[in-house]
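Our preliminary data section would be incomplete without showing what the modeling component actually yields. Below, a chain of 210 amino acids is followed by its predicted structure, encoded as tokens that our downstream tools consume directly.
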Amino acid sequence: MTSISEWFGERREEKVLEMFKREFELGRKSIEELVNMVEKGGRKFDRIKMFEKEADGVRRDIMEQLAKGELARQDKEDLMHLAKEADSINDWVYTSSKNLAVIGKLRESEKRLIAEMCKNDKEAIEKLNECIDRIISGEKEMAMELAHKVERLEEAVDDQYYSSQKVLLKENRPGAEAILVYALFQSVENIADACEDTADQIRLILVKFW
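Predicted structure:
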């Protein structure tokens, strides 16, 4: 039975590895679209919706290929869990884009903080993309360091999310509007949480099998 380290090292499942890379890349494309929405005050999230649906399809394909592969059961489950965590990043970017579209124009303090949070989300997703490349090329130490950096970025977003309470109080929006803006802050924070969960799963795989 093939181990994960052998699986990556010998690239026995080239197709699945490319699928993982595609799933992570879709997260990068999605967050770039969300950043543009925040900067330009846009309401259209068609491209993010398209990326999210494609990511769902990639996740299902990964599950199917892993189920047919020669890895041990626990190894398959660990990789399947990684695929699910990576997919959740796309889900939360999509949710954030819908929340933003409903609100439309953000007030200046809201826009500034959301932009800062999205910047850190984007960097976390970029680190994850680099991390999966390092895993595939067998660079364990660098992959682990990149996963640690994702955790630190999540902590930064968590601090920014705490600041959103002050922003909401300052802006004093009507009840329904305040709820919608709060939901936006929460969904953008959840992107970072999903990135951290993905990084945690990567670290688990690295510690267990390398």
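The CA atoms of residues 9 and 138 lie 6 Å apart. Helices lie at 4-10, 14-40, 46-68, 73-103, 108-136, 140-171, 175-209. Preliminary results of this kind motivate Aim 1 of the renewal.
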